[in-house]
Amino acid sequence: MTRSTSEVDIRAVLIDLDDTLYPQSSFLEGAVLAVGGRARELGLDRDRFIETFRSVLARGSDTGHTIDTALVESGYDADEVLRLTAPLVGAFLQYRPLSLECYPRVRESLERLAQRAALVCLTDGQPDLQRAKFSCLGVDTYFRALVITDELGGRSLRKPATACLNRVSEILSIPVRNFFVIGDRPDKDVALAHFGGIGVVRVHQGEYRDKASPQGVVTVDDFPSAVDYVIETYF
Ligand SMILES: [Mg+2]
Fold first, then answer.
1. Can you list the residues of the chain whose pLDDT is less than 50?
2. In principle, which of 100, 135, 138, 200 could form an S-S bond with 181, CB 3.0–4.6 Å?
3. Domain identity same for 43 and 135
4. pLDDT tens digits, residue range 2-13?
5. 36 alpha carbon to ligand 1 midpoint, in Å?
6. How many domains does the chain have?
7. How distant is the alpha carbon of residue 33 from its chain centre?
8. Are both 220 and 193 inside the same structural domain?
9. Which of 94, 124, 153 is where one domain is finished?
10. What is the pLDDT of residue 62?
Protein backbone atom coordinates (compact mmCIF):
# COMPACT_ATOMS: atom_id res chain seq x y z
CA MET A 1 0.00 0.00 0.00
CA THR A 2 1.32 3.39 -0.91
CA ARG A 3 -1.56 5.52 0.32
CA SER A 4 -2.22 6.43 3.92
CA THR A 5 -5.44 5.03 5.35
CA SER A 6 -6.98 8.49 5.78
CA GLU A 7 -6.94 8.99 2.00
CA VAL A 8 -8.69 5.73 1.22
CA ASP A 9 -12.43 5.71 0.60
CA ILE A 10 -13.48 2.09 1.14
CA ARG A 11 -16.65 1.34 -0.80
CA ALA A 12 -16.40 -2.43 -1.16
CA VAL A 13 -14.97 -5.20 1.01
CA LEU A 14 -13.96 -8.48 -0.60
CA ILE A 15 -14.30 -11.30 1.89
CA ASP A 16 -12.80 -14.77 1.55
CA LEU A 17 -14.96 -17.83 2.29
CA ASP A 18 -13.01 -20.88 3.55
CA ASP A 19 -11.40 -20.40 6.96
CA THR A 20 -12.51 -16.75 7.01
CA LEU A 21 -16.29 -17.04 7.47
CA TYR A 22 -16.39 -20.67 8.67
CA PRO A 23 -13.90 -23.38 9.61
CA GLN A 24 -12.96 -25.31 6.47
CA SER A 25 -12.14 -28.27 8.74
CA SER A 26 -15.87 -28.76 9.32
CA PHE A 27 -16.40 -29.21 5.58
CA LEU A 28 -13.37 -31.48 5.27
CA GLU A 29 -14.57 -33.74 8.08
CA GLY A 30 -17.84 -34.31 6.22
CA ALA A 31 -15.89 -35.08 3.05
CA VAL A 32 -13.66 -37.52 4.95
CA LEU A 33 -16.69 -39.43 6.21
CA ALA A 34 -18.17 -39.54 2.69
CA VAL A 35 -14.91 -40.93 1.31
CA GLY A 36 -14.78 -43.38 4.22
CA GLY A 37 -18.24 -44.65 3.31
CA ARG A 38 -17.11 -45.26 -0.27
CA ALA A 39 -13.93 -46.92 1.01
CA ARG A 40 -16.03 -49.43 2.96
CA GLU A 41 -18.10 -50.18 -0.15
CA LEU A 42 -14.85 -50.92 -1.97
CA GLY A 43 -13.81 -53.39 0.73
CA LEU A 44 -11.32 -51.21 2.63
CA ASP A 45 -10.97 -50.97 6.39
CA ARG A 46 -13.04 -47.78 6.73
CA ASP A 47 -11.79 -46.65 10.12
CA ARG A 48 -8.13 -47.21 9.34
CA PHE A 49 -8.44 -45.37 6.03
CA ILE A 50 -10.30 -42.46 7.63
CA GLU A 51 -7.67 -42.08 10.33
CA THR A 52 -4.88 -42.03 7.75
CA PHE A 53 -6.78 -39.68 5.43
CA ARG A 54 -7.36 -37.22 8.28
CA SER A 55 -3.65 -37.18 9.10
CA VAL A 56 -2.77 -36.57 5.42
CA LEU A 57 -5.28 -33.69 5.18
CA ALA A 58 -3.88 -32.20 8.38
CA ARG A 59 -0.56 -31.74 6.55
CA GLY A 60 -2.31 -29.65 3.85
CA SER A 61 -5.73 -30.09 2.26
CA ASP A 62 -5.03 -28.41 -1.07
CA THR A 63 -1.67 -29.96 -1.85
CA GLY A 64 -3.18 -32.55 -4.22
CA HIS A 65 -2.85 -36.34 -4.17
CA THR A 66 -4.23 -36.54 -0.64
CA ILE A 67 -6.29 -39.67 -1.33
CA ASP A 68 -3.60 -41.71 -3.10
CA THR A 69 -1.14 -40.63 -0.40
CA ALA A 70 -3.59 -41.87 2.25
CA LEU A 71 -3.91 -45.19 0.40
CA VAL A 72 -0.12 -45.60 0.23
CA GLU A 73 0.22 -44.71 3.91
CA SER A 74 -2.55 -47.20 4.73
CA GLY A 75 -0.33 -49.93 3.27
CA TYR A 76 -2.00 -50.62 -0.08
CA ASP A 77 0.25 -51.71 -2.96
CA ALA A 78 0.58 -49.82 -6.25
CA ASP A 79 -2.11 -51.85 -8.07
CA GLU A 80 -4.60 -51.30 -5.26
CA VAL A 81 -3.80 -47.58 -5.13
CA LEU A 82 -4.43 -47.40 -8.87
CA ARG A 83 -7.77 -49.23 -8.54
CA LEU A 84 -9.05 -47.35 -5.53
CA THR A 85 -7.95 -43.75 -6.13
CA ALA A 86 -10.48 -42.79 -8.84
CA PRO A 87 -13.65 -43.92 -6.99
CA LEU A 88 -12.49 -42.38 -3.73
CA VAL A 89 -11.57 -39.09 -5.41
CA GLY A 90 -15.02 -39.22 -7.02
CA ALA A 91 -16.65 -39.55 -3.59
CA PHE A 92 -14.65 -36.58 -2.33
CA LEU A 93 -15.55 -34.38 -5.31
CA GLN A 94 -19.21 -35.32 -5.16
CA TYR A 95 -19.56 -34.59 -1.45
CA ARG A 96 -21.75 -31.58 -0.67
CA PRO A 97 -22.32 -30.38 2.88
CA LEU A 98 -25.89 -30.29 4.20
CA SER A 99 -25.03 -27.71 6.84
CA LEU A 100 -22.10 -25.55 7.85
CA GLU A 101 -21.79 -23.08 10.71
CA CYS A 102 -20.09 -19.70 10.54
CA TYR A 103 -17.44 -18.87 13.10
CA PRO A 104 -18.91 -17.09 16.16
CA ARG A 105 -20.40 -13.58 15.64
CA VAL A 106 -19.73 -13.60 11.90
CA ARG A 107 -23.33 -12.85 11.00
CA GLU A 108 -23.55 -9.74 13.23
CA SER A 109 -20.23 -8.51 11.88
CA LEU A 110 -21.35 -8.95 8.28
CA GLU A 111 -24.50 -6.99 9.07
CA ARG A 112 -22.48 -4.09 10.52
CA LEU A 113 -20.08 -4.01 7.60
CA ALA A 114 -22.81 -4.35 4.97
CA GLN A 115 -24.31 -1.11 6.28
CA ARG A 116 -21.11 0.69 5.31
CA ALA A 117 -19.78 -0.97 2.16
CA ALA A 118 -20.75 -3.37 -0.61
CA LEU A 119 -19.68 -6.87 0.37
CA VAL A 120 -18.50 -9.50 -2.11
CA CYS A 121 -17.53 -13.03 -1.17
CA LEU A 122 -14.43 -13.88 -3.22
CA THR A 123 -13.33 -17.51 -3.27
CA ASP A 124 -11.31 -20.04 -5.25
CA GLY A 125 -12.43 -23.59 -5.91
CA GLN A 126 -14.85 -25.89 -7.68
CA PRO A 127 -17.75 -23.51 -8.44
CA ASP A 128 -20.73 -25.66 -7.50
CA LEU A 129 -19.04 -26.76 -4.30
CA GLN A 130 -18.18 -23.19 -3.30
CA ARG A 131 -21.78 -22.18 -4.03
CA ALA A 132 -23.05 -25.04 -1.88
CA LYS A 133 -20.82 -23.98 1.03
CA PHE A 134 -21.90 -20.35 0.70
CA SER A 135 -25.55 -21.36 0.56
CA CYS A 136 -25.19 -23.59 3.66
CA LEU A 137 -23.85 -20.67 5.68
CA GLY A 138 -27.01 -18.65 5.07
CA VAL A 139 -25.21 -15.30 4.82
CA ASP A 140 -26.10 -14.40 1.23
CA THR A 141 -28.37 -11.56 2.36
CA TYR A 142 -25.27 -9.55 3.37
CA PHE A 143 -23.46 -9.93 0.06
CA ARG A 144 -23.93 -8.19 -3.26
CA ALA A 145 -22.22 -11.07 -5.08
CA LEU A 146 -20.35 -14.34 -4.77
CA VAL A 147 -17.38 -14.37 -7.16
CA ILE A 148 -15.64 -17.70 -7.75
CA THR A 149 -12.31 -17.19 -9.47
CA ASP A 150 -12.43 -20.59 -11.22
CA GLU A 151 -15.42 -19.30 -13.20
CA LEU A 152 -13.41 -16.39 -14.56
CA GLY A 153 -11.07 -18.56 -16.61
CA GLY A 154 -10.00 -21.60 -14.64
CA ARG A 155 -7.51 -22.31 -11.89
CA SER A 156 -4.92 -19.91 -13.30
CA LEU A 157 -7.15 -17.01 -12.24
CA ARG A 158 -7.34 -18.12 -8.62
CA LYS A 159 -6.12 -15.63 -6.01
CA PRO A 160 -3.68 -13.90 -6.02
CA ALA A 161 -4.28 -13.33 -9.78
CA THR A 162 -5.87 -9.89 -9.96
CA ALA A 163 -8.40 -10.57 -12.75
CA CYS A 164 -11.02 -11.14 -10.04
CA LEU A 165 -10.59 -7.56 -8.83
CA ASN A 166 -11.55 -6.26 -12.26
CA ARG A 167 -14.54 -8.60 -12.37
CA VAL A 168 -15.78 -7.38 -8.98
CA SER A 169 -15.23 -3.81 -10.14
CA GLU A 170 -17.48 -4.48 -13.15
CA ILE A 171 -20.17 -6.09 -11.02
CA LEU A 172 -20.26 -3.30 -8.45
CA SER A 173 -19.31 -0.36 -10.71
CA ILE A 174 -16.76 0.58 -8.04
CA PRO A 175 -13.07 1.16 -8.86
CA VAL A 176 -10.54 -1.34 -7.50
CA ARG A 177 -8.80 1.45 -5.55
CA ASN A 178 -11.90 1.61 -3.31
CA PHE A 179 -11.71 -2.08 -2.39
CA PHE A 180 -10.49 -3.69 0.81
CA VAL A 181 -9.79 -7.41 1.43
CA ILE A 182 -10.42 -9.65 4.45
CA GLY A 183 -9.04 -13.18 4.33
CA ASP A 184 -6.96 -15.83 6.06
CA ARG A 185 -4.24 -16.79 3.60
CA PRO A 186 -1.03 -14.82 3.15
CA ASP A 187 -0.33 -16.43 -0.25
CA LYS A 188 -3.83 -15.72 -1.59
CA ASP A 189 -5.80 -12.98 0.16
CA VAL A 190 -2.88 -10.87 1.39
CA ALA A 191 -0.94 -11.30 -1.86
CA LEU A 192 -4.03 -10.38 -3.92
CA ALA A 193 -4.42 -7.14 -1.98
CA HIS A 194 -0.75 -6.31 -2.40
CA PHE A 195 -0.81 -7.00 -6.15
CA GLY A 196 -3.99 -4.92 -6.42
CA GLY A 197 -2.56 -2.03 -4.38
CA ILE A 198 -5.39 -2.19 -1.87
CA GLY A 199 -5.68 -2.71 1.88
CA VAL A 200 -6.07 -6.02 3.65
CA VAL A 201 -6.54 -7.44 7.09
CA ARG A 202 -5.65 -11.06 7.76
CA VAL A 203 -7.67 -13.26 10.07
CA HIS A 204 -5.29 -15.58 11.89
CA GLN A 205 -7.33 -18.78 11.97
CA GLY A 206 -7.91 -22.06 10.14
CA GLU A 207 -5.59 -24.40 8.30
CA TYR A 208 -3.08 -21.72 7.33
CA ARG A 209 -2.81 -20.02 10.71
CA ASP A 210 0.81 -21.12 11.11
CA LYS A 211 1.89 -19.43 7.87
CA ALA A 212 3.71 -16.19 8.61
CA SER A 213 2.19 -12.89 7.56
CA PRO A 214 4.33 -10.63 5.40
CA GLN A 215 5.85 -7.81 7.43
CA GLY A 216 3.46 -4.97 8.18
CA VAL A 217 0.24 -6.85 7.41
CA VAL A 218 -2.50 -6.16 9.94
CA THR A 219 -3.43 -9.51 11.48
CA VAL A 220 -6.32 -10.16 13.88
CA ASP A 221 -7.63 -13.24 15.66
CA ASP A 222 -11.02 -13.59 14.00
CA PHE A 223 -13.50 -12.14 11.52
CA PRO A 224 -15.38 -9.88 13.97
CA SER A 225 -12.05 -8.30 14.94
CA ALA A 226 -11.27 -7.74 11.25
CA VAL A 227 -14.59 -5.95 10.80
CA ASP A 228 -13.95 -3.85 13.92
CA TYR A 229 -10.58 -2.87 12.46
CA VAL A 230 -12.05 -1.91 9.08
CA ILE A 231 -14.87 0.14 10.58
CA GLU A 232 -12.66 1.93 13.12
CA THR A 233 -9.97 2.67 10.54
CA TYR A 234 -11.97 3.65 7.47
CA PHE A 235 -15.48 4.69 8.49
MG1 LIG B 1 -9.51 -18.93 3.01
1. 1-2
2. 200
3. no
4. 455 657 899 999
5. 25
6. 2
7. 20
8. yes
9. 94
10. 82
Whole-number Å distance, alpha carbon 43 to ligand 1 midpoint, is 35
118 strand-pairing partners: 12
pLDDT of amino acid 4: 56
* Residue 128 and residue 215 in one domain: yes
The rounded Å distance from CA 20 to ligand 1 centre is: 5
Both 87 and 112 in one domain: the answer is no
Residue 45 CA, ligand 1 centroid: distance in Å? 32
Are 80 and 120 within one domain?
Answer: no
Please tell me the distance between residue 124's alpha carbon and the centre of ligand 1 in angstroms.
9
- Cβ proximity of 234 and 10 under 8 Å: yes
Task: Give the structural domain span for 69.
Answer: 25-94
Does the pTM of the predicted model rise above 0.90?
A: yes
What distance in angstroms lies between residue 97's CA and the mean position of ligand 1's atoms?
17
Domain boundary among 73, 94, 115: 94
CA 80–ligand 1 middle distance (angstroms): 34
